Structure formats: structure tokens, C-alpha cells
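Sequence in, structure out. Go.
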Amino acid sequence: MPNVIPLSAARAEPAEAEHPAFRRYGYCLAWLLTVILGLTVLFAVAVLACGLLAGDVWLWLAPGAAFLGPPPPDTSGLVSFDALPLATRWAYAATFIFDTFPVILILAEARACARDFGAGIAFGPAAPARMRRIALGLAAHAVAPALGHGLVLLVGHGVDLAWFHASSVQALLLAACLAVLAEVARIGHAIARDLDGFV
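Output:
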């Protein structure tokens, strides 16, 4: 039919091979985050083992600080972790877990995002959920000191009672920004999917 005009095919998304630098950076970032995540987990296990198993040689608490290894000289209020009552030691262990677990969650989710980048996926369907989980991890990291040291106060015999850190405010602000970006990414992905379906 002379009135039928063939339409040109919609341009496909660029092949992954067209973005080698993006994929290389994503791969390098994923490798770096894997190393940092592994070191963080090892450090957390080492601190818990030193505090709960190794006795008073390894872990020391002072107001506003904690020390791993030999006790530092001229530190006021320094107390051996092993000298604290058992309930207080477990409360401090819980506080450390409250502080550390959100960091591990944030690093794991960031590593998953970097692995997507390494595969050439910039804004995939999983990106908004991962950004929300990172925002939740940041919010949990912000409130963890208050929860943990509240537990220490409840048990008693606390040494380091620094329940509020200035970095908590920064973590909460960053969590709010990431939550907004996650919603923007979700809407953008939905619009792109609808446009692909329409074409």
C-alpha cells in the first residue's frame, strides 16, 4: 500500500561494550568495597573477641573513648573492660553491634550497586531498593549510640556514655537525601519502562 510508511526501529540502548570506563570503575569500586567490607567484619569480630574472650589485656574504656591493645598512659578514667560487671560488658558488646551492623549493611548494599555498575547497569530496577536500604542503614547508624548507651545506663557501671555523636546528624541528613533520590530513581525507572512499552 502506498500510504504505509515504514517507521524506523527505536534506537536500542547502548551496548555495554560502549561504556568500558563506566564498567571498569564499577568493577574497581566493587573490589574496593569488598575489601573494606571484609576488613570491617574482621575488625568487628576481633573487637568482640578481645572484649569478651581475651580478658583485660586488650580492651580498655575511658570517657568518650575506647582503646584496643596496651593501655595508653595518662588517660583519666581508664577502666579495663574485663573489670566491668558481666551485664555491663554484654551491654557494651550490644552497643558495639548496634554501631557496627548498620555500617556492614551500608557497605554490602553499596558493593551490590557497584557490582551493577561493573555489569554496565547504571539505574536498574534494584537501585531504588538498595538506596532505601542504605538510607535505613544510615538512620540506624545515627540512632545506634543513643540506643546502645541507653542500654548501658539501664544496666549500670557505664564508663563511656557518649550517647550522641555529631556524625549522627550528618548520617540522618544523608539518609534523608538518599531516601529522596531513591524515590526519584524509582519514578525515573517506571517512566523509562512505560516509554519502552509504548514504543
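Check: Helices lie at 20-52, 86-118, 127-155, 166-198. Residues 15 and 42 are 39 Å apart (CA to CA).
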